[in-house]
Write a structure and sequence with these properties.
The complex is a heterodimer of chains A (167) and B (451). Chain A has 2 domains: 91 residues, Alpha-Beta Plaits (2-Layer Sandwich), CATH 3.30.70; 65 residues, no CATH class. Chain A contains 4 helices and 4 strands, in the order βαβααβαβ. The longest helix of chain A is centred in the middle third of the chain and has 27 residues. Chain B folds into 2 domains: 163 residues, no CATH class; 159 residues. Helices cover 69% and strands 0% of the residues of chain B. In chain B, helix 5 packs antiparallel against helix 15. The chains are: A alpha+beta (167), B mainly alpha (451). The interface between A and B is large, with 65 and 66 residues.
């Protein structure tokens, strides 16, 4: 994999570079921006914002609710205890188990979805520079077409980059 | 944003990870020896049986259950406080969130150990776990002890994840700034994190969901712990107020624990530039609020029992307020109400030292409160011929002391391997976008009006 990128000192410069890349015809999905902290307030931070995380967390909670409801009811009916004419399926105490499992389902679904959709637990992508940890912002394009290289370099320089880098 | 402040921030907060002084090894050795002593004492108890403790009929729950409730209470420091502060986007939370979340995880681990210590045969602990056993019985879902298992397991899982997720970007930062084995270990822990806008969005969304999910779980955990008592027809236990009373007490002691830890980290790790007096004072104000709430609950509980004039309950009321437990009871009142109220309600005294003194008092007071809930009631049940008394033996005292050392040891090791302040969150606060940063995110004292 090849990539061309530049490091920018602040969000405004990175935004100019992203705008330049868009003007040069690069789609958002081709542009990579990497920062050491969330860059809220800059338009580029809105890229890929749409997420199903809330829905999946709710579905995980629902799964926990259904699973635990079945679990407590099944076990109470399959191994009935002597309850002295009280109901075999005891809903009040069962609600405690059901509640805990519902929340656990939501929590686990959230974490698994985060790991999958954020692209974690994978090898490090080639387009990365440890200078990001010093507070700089990386803007670049992975696998650019040969013909687009001049436009790409021009756009990155327009953002104020002193030098371009390749990986 | 210039590079210099970001680098200095990282350098300051990563220094404890990258530099180790002899003091660290000395502290670990000291604490480790106390923990080993505790483990040895536990082994002694297992070998000789429960006769070496002061636990006996009718007081079959004593210091161990007191410790269980106390540590589960301390664990509320992290989740309740940080989840609420995260949800309302309080900027002053940033330096204290990880401190608090770490307390939660370690306090829960220690608290969850006490039901095992309290077992005569702890190697049969798996009988508590709900699975179809060879004995062809399932655990009884009507038992509060089974509710404990589910509640604490869920809370511990959620707490570990709530603590761990925001650490990923900081692990990536350590990965980028280290070499050799450190780079490999932190690279693995960073899970391939780079810091794309997509990853930041997902992380922040996940943290919001987790904050919403963990809050009711945290409240349910201590409510369920209170059910261990209130479901039993024991004088002064069988009370509908126990759920909220326990939750309020847990948050109260949790804030006290967090305040002490934050002040200690500030002093010993030289974090004065990041943990400001206003952070400690804000926690002090929360402590004052919880002190008043605790006093309210105590009053309501005592008034109801006194007014009901039921003989067994009055016996417990008397023995705690005027009888053999009175010194402990009044110490509790002084530590939980008189002292924090006197110190924290006066601005002049609400200094870091004042807040720490009040918090130490609250920790002592809350431990006594748990003890006074457990022991006097069991010793004064409905039939006077079953009445009995209790005195803790050295075994119980040594194990209790060792758990305090265990918390400090775990915390010391944690601080050695993980940045104790979330670097990326602090950076985000230091260089915010004015357009998106809500006014509440500024470092502001609680109760101050905004300009």
């Amino acid at each position: 994999m090849s990539a061309v990128y530049a490091m920018y000192p602040d969000g405004d410069a990175a935004q100019r570079a992203v705008d330049g890349l868009r003007a040069a015809g690069f789609a958002d999905r081709d542009i990579t921006v990497i920062s050491a902290q969330p860059m809220e307030g800059h338009e580029f931070s809105e890229m890929n914002k749409a997420t199903w995380l809330w829905h999946i967390a709710s579905a995980g909670g629902f799964l926990g609710l259904c699973g635990s409801t079945w679990f407590v009811q099944m076990t109470e009916l399959a191994w009935p205890l002597q309850t002295g004419n009280m109901p075999i399926v005891a809903w009040w105490p069962n609600l405690i188990i059901i509640f805990e499992m519902t929340m656990l389902g939501a929590i686990l679904a959230t974490v698994v979805t985060l790991l999958v959709t954020a692209g974690l637990v994978r090898r490090m992508p080639a387009l990365y520079d440890p200078e990001v940890s010093d507070g700089k912002i990386l803007v670049g394009v992975a696998n650019p077409a040969e013909a687009s290289l001049p436009d790409l370099e021009r756009a990155l320089r327009a953002g104020g980059a002193a030098q371009l880098r390749r990986s | 944003m210039s590079d210099a402040p970001a680098n200095r921030l990282s350098d300051d907060l990563l220094r404890p990870l990258l530099q180790t002084s002899w003091r660290f090894y000395a502290l670990v050795a000291f604490l480790g020896s106390i923990v080993l002593m505790g483990l040895g004492t536990w082994a002694y108890q297992m070998y000789n049986g429960f006769g070496v403790t002061g636990i006996n009929n009718p007081i079959f729950w004593a210091v161990y259950v007191t410790n269980f409730v106390f540590w589960i209470g301390i664990s509320h420091a992290g989740m309740v406080i940080t989840a609420i502060l995260r949800l309302v986007n309080a900027g002053w939370r940033r330096p204290v969130t990880r401190c608090a979340e770490a307390i939660t995880v370690f306090a829960l681990m220690i608290g969850a150990l006490f039901p095992l210590i309290h077992l005569g045969r702890p190697w049969l602990f798996f009988w508590l776990i709900p699975y179809p056993s060879s004995r062809q019985i399932w655990p009884n879902f009507r038992s509060p002890l089974v509710w404990d298992f589910f509640a604490i397991s869920t809370y511990l899982t959620g707490s570990v994840l709530f603590l761990g997720l925001p650490m990923i970007p900081d692990f990536a930062l350590v990965r980028d700034r280290t070499t050799g084995w450190r780079r490999r270990i932190y690279g693995g822990l960073a899970l391939g994190w780079t810091g794309t806008p997509k990853q930041w969005h997902r992380l922040e969304s996940a943290m919001s969901i987790m904050a919403i999910a963990i809050l009711p779980v945290a409240i349910s955990v201590h409510t369920v712990v209170s059910f261990d008592f209130s479901m039993a027809p024991v004088p002064m236990w069988h009370s509908t107020i126990f759920g909220p009373y326990f939750v309020a007490g847990a948050i109260f002691s949790g804030i006290a624990g967090l305040l002490i830890v934050t002040a200690a980290l500030r002093k010993f790790l030289h974090l004065e530039e990041y943990v400001h007096p206003v952070h400690i004072q804000n926690l002090g104000k929360l402590l004052l609020l919880m002190s008043l709430l605790w006093a309210y609950f105590l009053f309501v509980e005592r008034l109801t029992v006194w007014y009901g004039n039921e003989s067994a309950e009055i016996a417990v009321l008397r023995v705690t307020q005027k009888g053999s437990f009175a010194p402990l009871y009044w110490t509790m009142v002084v530590c939980n109400f008189v002292m924090p109220f006197s110190i924290l309600s006066l601005k002049k005294l609400r200094t870091i030292t004042g807040c720490v003194i009040a918090s130490c008092g609250v920790l002592i007071g809350m431990w006594l409160e748990r003890f006074l809930i457990v022991v006097p009631s069991l010793g004064h049940k409905y039939l006077p011929y079953t009445w009995g008394t209790y005195r803790p033996r050295p075994v119980e005292i040594l194990i209790t002391i060792s758990t305090f050392a265990a918390l400090v040891l775990l915390y010391t090791l944690f601080v050695k391997f993980v940045p104790i302040i979330s670097i990326w969150e602090l950076r985000a606060a230091e260089h915010p976008s004015p357009a998106l940063l809500p006014a509440a995110a500024r470092e502001q004292a609680l109760g101050e009006t905004q300009a």
